[in-house]
């Protein structure tokens, strides 16, 4: 159970980091 929760949290963090990276790339292109 704990492993599943940790895996979900990692996926959420990974997803958030991807959005931040995309925003930085978009700003850099502008």
Q: How would you describe the overall organization of this protein?
A:
This protein is mostly helical and 30 residues long. The chain is 93% helix and 0% strand. The longest helix has 28 residues. The termini are far apart. The mean pLDDT is 83.
The structure class reads mainly alpha
* Gyration radius from CA atoms, angstroms: 13 Å
Work out the helix count: 1
Residue ranges: pLDDT <50 for 5 or more in a row? none
Mean residue pLDDT = 83
Span between termini = 44 Å
| Element-level helix/strand string | H
How many strand segments?
0
Q: In one word, what is the shape?
A: rod-shaped
Task: Please outline the major beta sheet.
Answer: none
- Percent of residues in beta strands? under 5%
Task: State the helicity in percent bands.
Answer: over 70%
Summarize the structure.
By secondary structure, the chain is mainly α.
List the helices and strands and how they pair.
Blueprint: H1 2-29
Task: Describe the structure using short key phrases.
30 residues, mainly alpha, 1 helix
């Amino acid at each position: 159970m704990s492993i599943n929760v940790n895996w979900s949290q990692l996926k959420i963090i990974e997803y958030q980091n991807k959005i931040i990276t995309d925003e930085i790339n978009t700003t850099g292109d502008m």
